[in-house]
């Protein structure tokens, strides 16, 4: 049966701010986001059996209707009016940590939409896929587009920026986790003292000023989660020569920007054993990518 294999990249938040709240409880966001070369591998295949079957290398990931890929597929069929006569098998090989603020679930959903667009030959534009994707999750549109971008609204308004200058990014996931709804609930009861300067961040990116980018890293959720492990990982990264460090998304992963690969590797080696997982990544200029199509 026809299948599509894809690489689904993680993202980091160079800045993250909450700028309002809708009556339905959703929050308006303003973020500068960056795709990185840390990937999940997703395979979507048409099958002879009815329904959507999901498998995943991580046993902690739900493989039923709660899975964001399942949601994305349902929204795709609803938007296109397709009533599939065949079934769907979605296999996810996880590398991106869960509950880390790295869009590990959202990028899987983005991959599912890109694959379905290919398998059903619907020829939807990237913008149309993003309109479907935001119904499955706020980060899904960015994961489709990738690169470097300002994300506004509920994730549905994207403005592309020039590619981030080359650097090495150490990403560390502590043992603690926090679910996104809990993070927003805490935010609603917290006075935020420091907010990001998104305009200055955009200027630094346009100028290809890595030091300027590092100086303007800011995530309001750091003031909400207040995990000691987040502060400690930032301290270690700074001790080992990072230009700047911040938590990404609703956490709890922390990243540090390095101009020097050797320093980044030394930092990664130092963090090993004191956190759940640690990686070195590079910024990339794309989102979900098809790697193989089988007819």
List the defining traits of the structure above:
about 300 residues; ATP binding; Ribosomal Protein S5, domain 2; ATP-binding; alpha+beta; single chain; 4-stranded antiparallel β-sheet; EC 2.7.1.148; about 30% strand; transferase; 2 domains; isoprene biosynthesis; 12 strands; Alpha-Beta Plaits
Structural class: alpha+beta
How far is the N terminus from the C terminus? 7 Å
Q: Approximately how much beta-strand content do the residues carry? A: 25-35%
| Count of DSSP strands | 12
Whole-number radius of gyration?
A: 19 Å
Describe the main β-sheet briefly: 8 strands, mixed
Report on this model:
It is built from 10 helices and 12 strands. With 295 residues, it is α+β, with helices and mostly antiparallel strands. The chain folds into 2 domains: 3-161 and 284-294, 2-Layer Sandwich (Ribosomal Protein S5, domain 2); 168-281, 2-Layer Sandwich (Alpha-Beta Plaits), CATH 3.30.70.890. Strands 1, 2, 3, 4, 5, 6, 8 and 12 form an 8-stranded mixed beta sheet that branches. A 4-stranded antiparallel beta sheet has the order 9-10-7-11. Strand 3 (52-56), helix 1 (68-80) and strand 4 form a beta-alpha-beta unit. Helix 2 (104-119) packs across helix 3 (126-133) and helix 9 packs antiparallel against helix 10. It is globular. It starts with a strand and ends with a strand.
